[in-house]
Amino acid sequence: MKLIRFGEQGKEKPGVEIKGKRLDCSGFGEDWSEDFFGSDGLNRLEKWLQQESSQLPEIPQSIRLGSPIKRPSKIICVGLNYSLHAKESNMPLPEVPILFMKATSSLCGPNDPIIIPKNSTKTDWEVELAVIIGKKASYLDKDKAMDHVAGYCLHNDVSERDFQLHHGGQWVKGKSADHFAPLGPYLVTKDEIPNPHDLRLWLKVNGEMMQDSNTSDLVFDIPTLVAYISQYMTLLPGDIISTGTPSGVGLGLKPPRYLQHGDVVVLGIDGLGEARQEAKDFGKV
Ligand code: ZN
What own/partner pairs with CB < 8 Å and gap ≥ 24 does 47-54 have? Predict the structure, then answer.
């Protein structure tokens, strides 16, 4: 299944996409939230759709898409999880996964603008495969980890490099501004992605290919990450794990290049769709 949410920001309604048609699932009576995933919602929704899908109202393609999941308890990101990206960042390849958090208030729709924050000079892009947790997970063994995954999304881990690296303390400052986590277009359930470790992921800025890699190059794979993170915190249904970005970010270019008002970012991952985001200065949105 492909889950979407649509409508005005903050007032999104749940839906699904079936064979390219977007269908309104308001009649199911639940949003795609922690409660939904944590109460076997995907299986219940699948059964409901078998009865109802032919009668559901179709949503026009012009309607805004929101984040395909309702704001979850946390967004956990993995740093330097592709070897060439660690190299371009002048950092050593990690021996254990590097983790940092991103404020959940940074979530937005896949085609919403990237807002360049106040006082920003170094807003950068990062295409990433995001894993969505389907079942509460604590102290997992690696061989059980995939049972706790609901599916996958396309994510742009938008980053302000000056805030991230030169404002003291942790990376969280450079990762958490509003609209720094465009997610979607949809959540694709894991049954539709038989091998998440062989997906091309790419990102263009103003039509120019900047990142073009494959999840086969992940340093730490998905079961390793889910099990590892669950040793430090309980993962709740709906939580997002963003698995890291490949090389080709603005920071790694010589000279570095950052997003300017009017730049257009287009990104995609095999099977997870595409997204388009226009950069806009704070105050001009
Ligand atoms: Zn990242």
Answer: 49/1, 49/16, 49/18, 49/25, 52/27, 52/28, 53/16, 53/18, 53/23
**C-beta neighbour count of 117 within 10 angstroms:** 18
What's the CA-to-centroid distance between 143 and ligand 1, angstroms?
25
Give the Cα separation of 281 and 259 in Å (integer): 10
pLDDT over 90 at 31, yes or no: yes
Tens digits of per-residue pLDDT, 123-156? 999 999 999 999 999 999 999 999 999 999 999 9
Print the domain residue range for 191.
75-281
Q: How far is the CA of 244 from the centre of ligand 1 (A)?
A: 4
Output the pTM of the full model.
0.97
Say if residue 117 is in the same domain as residue 178: yes
Residue 63 lies in a domain: no
Q: Quick one: 174 and 33 in the same domain?
A: no
> Are 50 and 80 within one domain?
no
**Residues 103 and 157 sit within 8 Å (Cβ to Cβ):** no
What's the number of domains the chain is made of? Answer: 2
Name the residues around ion ligand 1, CB cutoff 5 A. Answer: 126, 157, 245
